[in-house]
UniProtKB/TrEMBL annotation:
<dbReference type="Pfam" id="PF00448">
    <property type="entry name" value="SRP54"/>
</dbReference>
<dbReference type="GO" id="GO:0005886">
    <property type="term" value="C:plasma membrane"/>
</dbReference>
<dbReference type="GO" id="GO:0006614">
    <property type="term" value="P:SRP-dependent cotranslational protein targeting to membrane"/>
</dbReference>
<keyword id="KW-0472">Membrane</keyword>
<keyword id="KW-0675">Receptor</keyword>
<dbReference type="GO" id="GO:0005047">
    <property type="term" value="F:signal recognition particle binding"/>
</dbReference>
<feature type="binding site">
    <location>
        <begin position="195"/>
        <end position="199"/>
    </location>
    <ligand>
        <name>GTP</name>
    </ligand>
</feature>
<protein>
    <recommendedName>
        <fullName>Signal recognition particle receptor FtsY</fullName>
        <ecNumber>3.6.5.4</ecNumber>
    </recommendedName>
</protein>
<feature type="binding site">
    <location>
        <begin position="259"/>
        <end position="262"/>
    </location>
    <ligand>
        <name>GTP</name>
    </ligand>
</feature>
<dbReference type="InterPro" id="IPR013822">
    <property type="entry name" value="Signal_recog_particl_SRP54_hlx"/>
</dbReference>
<comment type="subunit">
    <text>Part of the signal recognition particle protein translocation system, which is composed of SRP and FtsY.</text>
</comment>
<feature type="binding site">
    <location>
        <begin position="113"/>
        <end position="120"/>
    </location>
    <ligand>
        <name>GTP</name>
    </ligand>
</feature>
<dbReference type="InterPro" id="IPR036225">
    <property type="entry name" value="SRP/SRP_N"/>
</dbReference>
<dbReference type="InterPro" id="IPR000897">
    <property type="entry name" value="SRP54_GTPase_dom"/>
</dbReference>
<dbReference type="InterPro" id="IPR004390">
    <property type="entry name" value="SR_rcpt_FtsY"/>
</dbReference>
<dbReference type="InterPro" id="IPR027417">
    <property type="entry name" value="P-loop_NTPase"/>
</dbReference>
<dbReference type="GO" id="GO:0005525">
    <property type="term" value="F:GTP binding"/>
</dbReference>
Length: 307
């Protein structure tokens, strides 16, 4: 909770100061206040469509209740946003329980995202959390496009103390994925996390590569990958929306991780992206440290974000 509060501090301070400015000297929520609130939400990176949806809901509430005081506005906003956010129900639960798969096969998470968003760090942090929960983890270095990606993942595997399957740079990513799942199965691992390359500039290649990796995984473990986790850099605001849309076209993303929420006032992207993509945010990154990854809890998030 403290870490979450700290991580969202900038977003919250920025939001609350804007909100305070819009309601100063006003006791009643009227059309003008709602107009201003709309601007505040958009400028907090919640995104236009999601903002309009939220404003509409509050308008309905105001119309129904006749009088809504500005003191109540933040509370109403929190409730509406919490009800809007997708529940984090697929795959790994809050306490890191994995769904059961046939033959006790490991839970397979394929991680996608463009370079620099914090993909490797997120995999390392995740592996650490799973390991701390007593789970057996195997990493797979299928982002073979950059030597640095493989090296970075090796460093994380050593740091966390979990095995990694890698074939170096330029290896066939599908072959690495295949080996990783074979190895995970043979070791009786609970979870396999596979890094992949995210070259958005060539969408057809990306799509083909991800489909091939998926096909191969499904051959080793039917149903795998169970989770396709897209990592997005929260500090890039609207860019993160664009990336989410592009990746959703390339593969079946079913979970999001939003990183670097510390040190940015753009935390509203978490709300907008989840709503626009209709994909739950599962993890949020709130720092560079190994423990700075949290399972997303929508109530905790709105409580920290909106004060
Ligand atoms: P990749 O290229 O997507 O694999 O990105 P990396 O995992 O190498 O991360 C890029 C940079 O972002 C590194 O300096 C990380 O320490 C940093 N980073 C990753 N996640 C977070 C986060 O949640 N908060 C902050 N402040 N930095 C992060």
């Amino acid at each position: 909770k403290k870490k979450l509060d700290e991580g969202l501090e900038k977003s919250k301070t920025s939001f609350l100061s804007k909100l305070t400015r819009t309601v100063v000297g006003k006791s009643k929520v009227d059309a003008e206040v709602l107009d201003d609130l709309e601007e505040v939400l958009i400028s907090s990176d919640v995104g236009v469509n999601t903002t309009l949806k939220i404003i509409e809901r509050i308008e309905e509430r105001v119309a129904k209740d006749k009088y809504v005081s500005t003191d109540e506005l933040n509370g109403i906003l929190k409730a509406e946003i919490a009800s809007l956010l997708k529940e984090n129900t697929t795959g790994v639960t809050d306490n890191f329980e994995f769904p059961k798969h046939p033959d006790n096969a490991p839970h397979v998470i394929m991680v996608v995202g463009v370079n620099g968003v914090g993909k490797t760090t997120t995999i390392g942090k995740l592996a650490n959390q799973f390991k701390n929960q007593g789970k057996k983890v195997v990493l797979g270095a299928a982002d073979t496009f950059r030597a640095a990606a493989v090296d970075q993942l090796i460093i994380w595997s050593e740091r966390v103390g979990v095995p990694i399957v890698q074939q170096g740079m330029n290896a066939d990513p599908a072959s690495v994925a295949y080996d990783t799942l074979q190895s995970a199965k043979a070791q009786g691992a609970d979870v396999a996390i596979i890094d992949t390359a995210g070259r958005l500039h060539n969408k057809v290649n990306l799509m083909n590569e991800l489909s091939k990796i998926k096909r191969v995984m499904d051959k080793v473990i039917p149903g795998a990958p169970h989770e396709i986790l897209l990592v997005l850099d929260g500090s890039t605001g609207q860019n993160a929306y664009e990336q989410a849309k592009q990746f959703a076209l390339a593969t079946d993303i079913n979970a999001l991780a939003v990183t670097k929420l510390d040190g940015t006032a753009k935390g509203g992207v978490v709300i907008g992206i989840s709503d626009q993509m209709q994909i739950p945010v599962k993890y949020i990154g709130v720092g560079e440290g190994i423990d700075d990854l949290q399972v997303f809890n929508k109530q905790a998030f709105v409580d920290s974000f909106f004060g």
